[in-house]
Every structure is written in structure tokens, then in C-alpha cells.
């Protein structure tokens, strides 16, 4: 093991300048003046003659293996091969065309390697006070990001062998220096920092991207332009290049402070921004930067203070202008503040601990609620105590304190929250092109063809909008235009959107108002409830429920309206997830067609496998030949704004050729939205989610029916695929809705980390992600069992 306390004595090569001049003339044919340059372990001189600067002679420490020098030379060659515009100095070969030669010191008798490095023009940053500005820090970060991007494909057998005093990866060997410092606050802080490094920081660094990095771009090794102190002119000295985390690169640059700097992370913020612009960071890497910066400053403070106290004759090589001061300031600032500032600067979402394993930050829930209501107005938060959700993955959502909640409520991310394939597709398309459908874009036409390929021939054309509300609104407009009618039919309590037109088709939005305020052109059909409805136990329930459509059409006629459209959510989410009797939907569709209207299948909640079939109306028993429009939103792009109207090309031509010659939505069907939609179809097919919806949904309903055997509060379990309706009753005999107990059960479930929603009074709607598996079902059933026990 290397003794780092002995390496604190730099032991540079011992040479008379006269010997060096003679060797340079012999090997390179160069003569001139030699100016000594500051160096940690080596010797370096700038050579000038009447033609100007010729290069930098570097003599390596005697302890430097030949492979390390070869590593440094080939790393530069690789960088320039990958990115020729990077300002790094190549090696100038000897007269014998060698990259370096072995020489022997006449003073010490030790053998060393000598090489000539090309001169790079510019001003060294440490001699350029005006360079210490935000723009410089961004630019040096971007330059080193580009360098690391170039080095990611580089391999050398000595990449892991260049251990040195400043190497983060081997910093624990510096702890034997600690007794050389006086007892007190500094030694205590350094000790705790190295202890944390052993148990947390270093293991975490191994989980970041590790590769060859320069890790010495401090203000002594960076040059800027003579004309612009923010323009990077050269990156010098590859003596510390080694295999390490890319974070070692960032914190090394960021410990470069201007005189009088008081903010320990101002350079870090701008360096990280620049680096991220060229070589994007991950959230995991950003969240580790505080600890790595803390460790880097501790290493620097320890080395310099140890040298100062234990080897004063050798000098300190670097003065402690700021390392110890900034270490204390950073420690006082704390991880929460630093991480929040970094995430904000890099436009990452707010910090969220992973499964309670990350550090816990202070709760600012009350301040967040006040800020939200101040700028957004009063918002319905679903629960008495609003949930502060910061992250989600698959079937789970995570609050700011890292608590995992099983999501059985949100029907939008049907393929699971933040599905990696969909996220990747969005990012890739956004990087290439995000524009509207005025232009010819392959992805838009490809997506429309794929979405309609298994539908009947008359459903062959797509219109893209931005949401389910827009899709339903447009479908109703087209139905009104083509039929010449203005009336509408909808099931009681239904919801189909929030535009002016779709709100009229959403009784859920106006049934609480006085009857005089009901929209006169709309008539509601009674819900075909087979558990607690008017004809629930009747053998001819389908005909009896469907007969209400005759009444509704006649009621419209009496108000001088005829039906333009019947709109149906065959998932029946707003109706308690009821299961209508067989043939009901076909019967009412026939009645509407006979009256000159159109049938709209609202697939916002029913489609994409939710009902155990790709199209929900098919699973619910509505004949596809009787559907005139299919509308989609919400899950069609897994939460990315996209809505779809599917209709026949003939109807589309009639509509555009009539009173609507222009039909265009600027963002509807943009390339990114269509890429998200295409990726959703990929996930459904690859993961066989339609079949999985049936299998897992059946398991969930079976387990709930088992719970019903011991919990009389459960009156009925129903649904299809990954959609479950749970009706709670105070009396099974009378089927009396348990309204109060439903609210209580929702609160008990959230205590047990399950999010669930209600529908009609006394009913729960359970809408899990299609990615749920046995683990999620078990978690849900256990929470439901415990919650029901709490109510009994």
C-alpha cells in the first residue's frame, strides 16, 4: 500500500539546468531560455527562443512508471482524434520519432523520462483575476465535459494505476496524516469527512460513471484567451489523469475560487451547468456532488496543512488560500441547501430520496401549499393532508420524504409511471424535432397507421389534438355538423371533458345545480346498473334499460332537438364501474342511429388494454360496426399531452368540405406526442399487457372477493381487466351505500400507503397501472384487509 504521508514530501527530480539544456538540444534540436514552471511531482520548463515559445519540457518523477507516461500521451492523442477542437497540447516527438526518452540525472543518478509538450498560447487563470467569473466556470465545465465525452471510449492498461496524493478514489490512505495535525475543529471535521467517505461517499462514487478523467483542471493548469478571459485556450498537465468517477473532474475544477469568494458552491453551480451541457449528468450524480466536493476540499486542506506543519522546508506547492475556509463554509451550508441549488441550476426535479435510503431533507409542506395556492389558486388535493409527490416509477409514487405509495388511483400513466421506454422515445424525438403537422413527419403518419390497423375499415382516419376533452369536443362537433342535429345523449353521472361543449355532455359537472340550469339540448339515460339499479335483478334488464333511450330521444324532440351524438365511456368509471347487461350498448346504439345520430366511444379510460381488450368498447360488448367515432386521451401517450379522434375518411372529408374547411391543432399530433404514443404501443405489445391486464385483474378481483367473505362492508366486486369497482354497503340485504365508510376507507388506505379513489357514493374505483404484478396485488390486498379491520 502506498504511504501517502511520505508522498506529501514531493521529492521532485534533481537536475542541473545545464544538463537539461544539453539533453533538449541533443533530443529535440532546441535551444533558448528556460523558465521553470510550477509542478507537483515533476520538473517542467517553458522553452523560448527568438522565434517565440517552443514547448514545455517535462521530466517525470523517478517513481513514475513508464506505463503512466504512455497513458498520458495516448490519452491526449485519443482526445484530439475524437474532438480535434479541444485545446489540449500534444507531445512533440524526438529526432528519433519517440514520444519520450529515458535520461539519468547527474545529481542523483536516478532515471527519468523526458518529453516535449507543444506550447499552448494564453494566460494562466491563476494570473488572470478577471477570469474568476460565472461565464468562465461554465466554459471550463463545458470543456471538461467534452473532454470526458471524448475519453469515455478510451482504454489503457495503466488507467487504474496512476495513484497519487490527490486521487479521490484512494483518499483513505491519507488518514495517517491526521495525527500530524493539531487537535481541534479542523482535525475533527477532516476525520468525520474521511469516515463518511469510507462508509458512504466512496461506495456511492463506484455507482457513478467511472472512466479516464483529467482531474486536475485547476486555475494553474487552465489557460484563457488573451482577448477574452472566459474563453478556454488550453488544458495543461495530464499528470493526474486516471480512472475515476466523472465527479472527480467536476469538483477539482470547482475548488478554484477567486480571492474574497464567500459562496463555496458558486463555481460548482456553473461548472456543473457547463459540464452537463456537454456530458449530461444523472440525478444520482448530482445528489452526490455535495459529499464529493466536501471530500475534495478535505483532501486539499489535509495535504496542505500537513505539509505546512511537517515539512516546512519543502514549501506547500499550493497555498491554502481557500480550501480550509471553504470546507467549513460548505459544511455549514449543508447538503440540503447545496443539493437544492444544484438541482435548480441544472433543471432537475426537486430532490427525492430513493426508498428512504437517501438523506431526509426538511419538510416544507406548509410553505409549498401556501405558495401553490398563492400562484395557482385553491386546488383540490384529493386528501385532507395533501401529498407532496416528487418521484414515481411503475406502479408506485414517492413523497418528498421517500415514502412509497402504491398507486391504484391514477389512470393516466397506464403503462406505469415514467416508463423508461416511453421517456426515452420522448427525449429522442424532442432532441431531433418537435413541430406541428403542417410539415411532413414520418412519425405522425406511422403512428396513425399503427393505431388504426386492427380496427374495422370504416375507422381508418385519425385527427390528433391535445387531450381527451378536445377529442370528445371535436367528435361532437363533427357529429353535429354531419347530422344537422344539436341534441345529445349521455348516461347519467357521466364525465366526458371540461370544454364548454363537453361539459354539457358531462352531467357529473351540472347535476348538482338547479334543474333550470341543466343544458336543454342534453338528455341523460339511466345507468344500466346490475347491482343496485332499477332493473338490477330483472331477466330482461338489457331491453328495459335500453328502452330509456326511446324516452330520452322523445324528450329531446319535445324540446325541438334531435340527437347528434350518444357518447359512451364503456369503462363506466363515473358510474361506479358498473357492468351493463349483455347487448345493452348495441341496443342503444341502434336507437341513436335510427334517430339520425352518431355513436362516440370515449376510450379515454377504457382503451389501450385497460378492459382486458385493446379497445374497451369491444370488451364491453359494443359491436365495432356500430361505432362512428373513437376518442382517446390521457393514457394514449402515458400522460404526455395527446388526444385522438378516429373516424372514417369519408366523414372526415365531408366535415372538412362543409362548414369547417380548416381543421388544425398546432400542438395536436406533434412529433414528440406521436413518439410517446408509438412507444406506448411498443410497451403494450412487448410486455403483453392486454393479457396481463386480464390475468392480474382477475387475481385482484378474486382476492377482493375473498376479503368480502370476512368483511361484510364489501357488497359487490366487479370490473374487467385492470379496472375494478368495489361497492361498499351498510346492509348487503338492502344494498345500502356506505357513503361515510367509503371516505373513511380511503383515509385508512392512504395511512397504509395505498392511493385509491371513489366514484359514486359508496363505490371505489381501482385503476392500477397495467404493469402491476403479484407484489402489488399482495400489498394492496393486505392494506385493504387492515383498513377494513380498522373500520369494523
Automatic annotation (TrEMBL):
Pfam families: Aminotran_3 (PF00202), APH (PF01636). Residues 55-276 form the Aminoglycoside phosphotransferase domain. GO terms for molecular function: 2,2-dialkylglycine decarboxylase (pyruvate) activity; pyridoxal phosphate binding; transaminase activity. Its EC number is 4.1.1.64. Its cofactor is pyridoxal 5'-phosphate. Keywords: Lyase, Pyridoxal phosphate. It is an enzyme of class 4 (lyase). The keyword Lyase applies. It comes from the Bacteria. Gene3D superfamilies: 3.90.1200.10, Aspartate Aminotransferase, domain 1 (3.90.1150.10), Type I PLP-dependent aspartate aminotransferase-like (Major domain) (3.40.640.10). InterPro entries: Aminoglycoside_PTrfase, Aminotrans_3, Aminotrans_3_PPA_site, Kinase-like_dom_sf, PyrdxlP-dep_Trfase, PyrdxlP-dep_Trfase_major, PyrdxlP-dep_Trfase_small. Belongs to the class-III pyridoxal-phosphate-dependent aminotransferase family. This is 2,2-dialkylglycine decarboxylase.
